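Recall that a protein's primary structure is simply its ordered list of amino acids. Everything else, from secondary elements to tertiary packing, is in principle encoded there. The following example makes that idea concrete.
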Amino acid sequence: MIPGHGHGSVSHETQSIRWASYEEARVLIKLTTNHVGRQRDLQILEATQRWLEVNYKGVIAFEQRGSSGWAIKGDWMTEEMPDRFVTLPLDFYLGPKDAEAIRKGYIPSAMEEKWFSYFVDNKLYQHRSWTGFMIDRVSFVEERGDCARCKRM
């Protein structure tokens, strides 16, 4: 949920929706009478808390700029690739965690964070945050489930 945005539809299992701290959410979820649902919801809460601990800066940047998802081109001032550029052959794999991080892109939250990146059509676009100049465009192919293989830059 994002403050000020709709939360989508709920199922018959949902009694109410409200903002709560992690500890308050644990207490509320433990009131659930459905054992399977309670265990599922506690696992989701724990996984969400772990994910947000790692990705907090990116989430804050999204909220500050009003984005409703991962980094997209329109989240930042960007320039197209210059007419003259070099194509380099690359060949390396990213495991599931690294591939997921690349797909999310990156929105800088402070001037010291010098890069803005977004991922679309299996390409990672990287720009200097101050100028918006595109520095590279890295092509990937999906391989081995959630992994990605870099093919060229």
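The two ends are 36 Å apart (CA to CA). Strands lie at 89-94, 115-120, 123-128, 134-143, 147-152.
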